[in-house]
Amino acid sequence: MPTAEQILSFANKCVASDEELFRIYYYDCPPFGGTLTHPMTGAAEDFSATAVYAARSAMLDALAHSDHV
Prior knowledge:
Largest sheet: 2 strands, antiparallel
Oligomer: single chain
Order of helices and strands: HEEH
Structural class: alpha+beta
């Protein structure tokens, strides 16, 4: 999964030296953070406590606070 820095770096590499970056559009959705019951074990699984949820949330938040995004 890409980081916000990697996305911004790639976008800046796509701009020629005589051009100016106006805006970056990055389409994604927030990660699912609810709790579901596992169908086989019946145990509750809290998706907001996973490392993937934390990483994706942090990446989207960093992009949201970046210029031109």
